[in-house]
Amino acid sequence: MSTEAAAATAPAVTEAAEPLAPVITPTAAPVIHPLWVRVTHWINALAILMMIGSGWQIYDASPLFGFTFPHQIALGEWLAGALLWHFAAMWLLVINGIVYISLGILTGRFRRKFFPIRPREVVSDFIAALRGKLSHEDLSVYNAVQKLLYVGVLLAGFVIVLSGLSIWKPVQFWWLTAFFGGYNTARYVHFAAMTAIVTFLTVHVVLAIVVPKSLRAMIVGR
Ligand code: HEM
Ligand code: HEM
Questions:
Q1: In sequence order, what are the residues at sequence separation of 6 or more whose Cβ sits closer than 8 angstroms to the Cβ of residue 41?
Q2: Which CATH code is given to the segment(s) 3-220?
């Protein structure tokens, strides 16, 4: 577009505007999620989706329960392919997780954002959420239910990694396998942690869609 054409289509605001009116640009808004949180969050989301998809394919080769996962939503085509995906994405998950957790502790973010978690507030915020009366005004402060869920999913992450290690290398990590009550029980623990993460993820993604500005903040930071 030429400069004349651009000037012709631009809204004529100059006469009406106050000459010394303060200019408030969007960049003045404080950052809610620093870059390291956003980058590690989305790498984690990708890694977890690959772990879930390949995990389901692994499960299908030798189901623990009376059902299997549909081929279309599993990753890796067959057992060997799925194991390759699982062990490749594992590195992404674990290295990225170590970066996120280290920075979360060192910067004080975890202490500030996730704690304290007061049971009374969890109950009242949960009731408010069910009634659709939870405020989403200030995205920099998590409500008590969010805090509990985020800390909960981090703990599920520890359990799934440790139980995963104990079924991956039961000889080297025999003490870990023993801690989980043996190889077979560790498989059930691993599956239970996956179920907890998938349940969290379902609620988490629905809420991100219901409150789109929170999704925006996790992408652009504010
Ligand atoms: C360090 C991380 C992880 C390691 C070392 C690991 C390792 C393994 C191994 C060795 C198996 C095969 C078990 C068997 O032969 O029966 C497996 C299965 C599985 N994994 Fe993981 N895993 C990890 C993380 C995850 C994550 C993050 C998820 C999903 C959120 C996941 C979901 C599954 C599922 C659903 C299965 C099939 C369960 C079964 O039938 O035993 N894993 N994992
Ligand atoms: C794949 C789709 C995902 C979407 C659309 C999504 C979306 C979001 C959004 C919008 C927030 C900001 C919440 C707010 O400001 O109120 C957030 C935070 C968070 N999400 Fe996710 N997420 C996804 C996957 C995951 C996964 C797989 C996990 C972990 C298993 C996870 C764990 C977290 C945690 C722990 C936070 C808080 C981060 C912090 O403040 O340090 N998310 N997510």
A1: 33, 100, 218
A2: 1.20.950.20
